[in-house]
Amino acid sequence: MARGRYLIVFPENGGVTDLIRYAARRGGDNDSHRFLEGTEPSHPDHRWIILISMILRKIIAFFAKPLYFLGSLLDFLLNLLSHNGTIFGLLHNFLHGKVVIPEKGSKSFISTIGELDNRVHLCGLTFKPELGNRPLMDLCVMASKCTLWTSTTAGMKRMSTQVFILCDKPKGASLILVSFRGTEPFDADDWSTDLDYSWFEIPGVGKLHMGFVEALGLGNRVDPATFYSHLQTRTAGTDSSDGDQSLTSAEGIRKMTAYYTVRSKLESLLEEHKNAKFIVTGHSLGGALAILFPTMLVVHEEMGIMERLLGVYTFGQPRIGDRQLGRFMEAHLHRPVPKYFRVVYCNDLVPRLPYDDKTFLYKHFGVCLYYNSFYTEKEVEEEPNRNSFGPRFILSKHVNAIWELIKGLLIGYVEGPEYKEGWFRILFRVIGVVLPGISAHCPTDYVNSIRLGKESSIRMPSI
């Protein structure tokens, strides 16, 4: 058994009838044990929220293969059009026997996110972080978007989280950037992870979202003892009473997991570039991993690395833990100035996940920079309507989605050609009218928020 408390939710362990029985009975019965392992939820609301999340995860799992094939087909068709110069170019090439067939995995094969927003350049300001916050945020949001620029090959996601690291100069760098790849729109596992309510508690630190911890390679729910093996301080690590086998297994996978690989590479770069500081960023799932990475540096007492941290900027990030975790990390991320900034755009669904209420454990922390649909920035403790899933939000969300569709059609004329949205992005906004909150998660609006939003007045860290 793993030390400390934990809860693992297994929606795959039963059918519809089992879910009905779970909803009808109290904790401690066989139906609870079928779906849950570890600490039983103590509040009735917890059980209902977990039930809803399991139903949604079952629906996502049911559509996993169709979703994957739809994404692959869409990727191929979009690249077929772009490689041949739109529909008219494709028709011309077809008639002349010169159709260019895109090859998945090649450098020229662009993901759906890349087709939604093909901007790759930074904003007009020369990137000098010491001059202000806007160029730094622009670099982070573009790095977060570009991690999703190419499509992953089948099976790659199962092996590891994807990350890229860059330095602002080949020698004598002043900035090192670590960007984690975010949620892929047609990957059922990514969306299921956002809805997962499994957690592991580190004594003195707080509860961590188990799915995100797994994505960093710091444990496996098949053997909960592996979480204890990885989620402990150096001092606690001297006690190996959980058994040599679990610890040996944990040590064996360190070389191939995201967290240890990134940490090792970052240590090497910080040693090479003596005056450099580093920044961590990511969009969606990548944002969750971006804040979880320095959290684990603190847990592992890697304070030498943390002293070189410039900041953490996340975009559309889901919640990663409870209020105690937030209090634990604030001591390391808010002094002498704030270092953690969580950017949220309008009705984006993902920052409202996993569900949070007065009785449940998942809470955001850090400075929230909220942008409404007019790209007006406001510094808040929590994004408005933090649980915007009730019936009273339905009308306002649909009305706002209609406005965003109109805005997408007009923004190129109002703000200039670089903001003009293509047919595929407009189609995505149409889908957003039906499913509000999905379209708002697109990196396009996060890039626009940083570039069109007013300057923040809060004090930012500088190199």
UniProtKB/TrEMBL annotation:
<feature type="domain" description="Fungal lipase-type">
    <location>
        <begin position="178"/>
        <end position="356"/>
    </location>
</feature>
<dbReference type="GO" id="GO:0006629">
    <property type="term" value="P:lipid metabolic process"/>
</dbReference>
<protein>
    <recommendedName>
        <fullName>Fungal lipase-type domain-containing protein</fullName>
    </recommendedName>
</protein>
<dbReference type="InterPro" id="IPR044819">
    <property type="entry name" value="OBL-like"/>
</dbReference>
<dbReference type="InterPro" id="IPR002921">
    <property type="entry name" value="Fungal_lipase-type"/>
</dbReference>
<dbReference type="GO" id="GO:0004806">
    <property type="term" value="F:triacylglycerol lipase activity"/>
</dbReference>
<dbReference type="Pfam" id="PF01764">
    <property type="entry name" value="Lipase_3"/>
</dbReference>
<dbReference type="InterPro" id="IPR029058">
    <property type="entry name" value="AB_hydrolase_fold"/>
</dbReference>
<keyword id="KW-0378">Hydrolase</keyword>
